[in-house]
Amino acid sequence: MFVPAISKTTMILENQLFASTLIPPLAAVIGPLANVFPIAALVTSWRAEYTASGTDASAKALQDPHWCTALNASSLAAAFLGTIILLMLLARRIRYIVGMPMVILLWLMTPGLLISGVVSMHIYAPPLRPQQTYSQGFWYAVIAAVLYLFASAMLVINMRGYFLDHYSASLQLTKHEGISILQGLLPSLWLAVWAAAFSQVSGLTYVDALYFSENTLLTVGFGGMLPPNNAAMGMIIPFTIGGILSVGFLINGISTLVGRINESNLILLREEKDRFDAMRHIQISTGKSKKWWIFCQSLLALSVLWCVGAAVFWKAEMREQHLTYFETFFFCFVALLTIGFGDIYFKSNAGKTFFVVWSLIGIPVITIFISNLAEALPFLGQADITFGRWVRMLGSRLLRRVTDKHPRVRSWMKTKANTAAAEQSVRSGIPFLRPESSEEGQNAPQNNGQTLEILAELFSGEIADEHDTARGIVVAIRSVVRDMATAPDKRYTYEEWVYLTRLIRSNAALRPLSETGEEEDLVEWDWIGEDSPILSGKSEVEFALERLCESMARYVRQQRSLQNERGASVKNALRSMMGLEGPTRRRHSVPSAIIKLHPWYSIEI
């Protein structure tokens, strides 16, 4: 038994896939989300002075130095400009080699300016302890600097892969990935706009309104803040409805982007069918181990988010509430599950600030964990399927009893079933050997007499008529297009691939040559090679459709060439018959004429 192993080459290819296809969309999601934090840092002073109560919530803001405000505004402008250029780059409005360095430079300037302001504030105008402290604006600046450093580092990794020729200078995004990026922008825009509106209605500061909006958006409801008037209560209703929808879009978008890396390509004996079966076995077994590996990664990410978040909250709330680590650990559990008992809520500036970014990170982490849990433990997700099978089995037994007692009903049902099967066969077009199981050919069927007869028929002799081949290709394209619409991830059986391969290779000798003299179209492959349909990086349906279209294009070129040759032959024959051999006699003896050979074909002589 061949046991596949994830080689070093495979890991390198997966890293290149992550750097080329996932980093730019993830950066496009992180960038607009991080833009909210420089706004909060700009509109809020970085220092506050305690009042008689001595709490962070009642502290009064102190005026920031002018140089601090200038650094804040400059960092916000650089962040917005970099985000706009990245979105234009993803929309292919700017060349990669021009746009990506600009985004990296601007997103490195943003944390550079913020860090300069933070360090300068700490050195030249620090809060006077214990009467003064840093406000939420200061901590938002710190978090924004960290996020932009992380995003720019990811883009540097992407740019490095381009300079090393690991991939081309283009960002190929599918329609779903573009939608996922737009969905990722919604929560940040929703939070920023509604926090500003809510702060005007409720009288809260912008950062407190941002914390309250995040608390409400995630349906946690700690109870530390309440809407002070009827206008604020009325705003919460549309905000919550729209916010929950935007968070759902964010979850779907990030899950779609991260889910692409789960589809790994394997780069790794006898007859062709044995090689196909071996490759299919490797694909299935490696897919299972890959699901467990992804599940362990998501579990580790959730554990780090939980434990590290508890440690940060424990440290941040030590002065205000004197909480223990276990209490903050339990609090994180309650917050992640959006239970919100209300006995513990944030009171410190650092705790409120960190909760906003921590909760936003927790949304995709816990969602991906749950989805990977269902994939790694399929029996959890298939419990309802098993129950449905039992129900169908009991129903079929009852139906069999009825048909045994009424032969006419049984005969009528059999006739209807045969008619439906014939109609489905005509619609499908391709005479595939379709297994009765509903798993869409994930496992190759066992060889039987019917399979051997079909294979013998397929491999016996040459195709009698090239036009029959063209008709077969058209019918195959129609069936594959239907598969792409209904089951885009379908895996064809070996017998289906036999028929498709014969159509694809029917005119392989007509392949065009590229500028380097090599044949462009792919018609020959090894099931365990890098050019195998199973390892192509595309779905088998998409691979088959591309190869069939190439085969049809070769047939069209062949027919056009034959038509030109026949036309030239007929033209020369007519000239010979009419005595028009030389150009001089054609010009002086006989006027030019048009001979109509067919309703749609004529020759000018």
UniProtKB/TrEMBL annotation:
Residues 193-257, 304-377 form the Potassium channel domain. It is a multi-pass membrane protein. It is found in: Membrane. Pfam families: Ion_trans_2 (PF07885). GO terms for cellular component: plasma membrane. The keyword Transmembrane applies. GO terms for biological process: stabilization of membrane potential. One of its GO terms (molecular function) is potassium ion leak channel activity. It comes from the Eukaryota. Keywords: Ion channel, Ion transport, Membrane, Transmembrane, Transmembrane helix, Transport. The chain crosses the membrane at residues 21-43, 70-91, 103-125, 137-157, 178-197, 231-251, 292-314, 326-346, 353-374. Signal peptide: none annotated. Gene3D superfamilies: 1.10.287.70. PANTHER family: IP11374P, POTASSIUM CHANNEL, SUBFAMILY K. This is Potassium channel domain-containing protein.
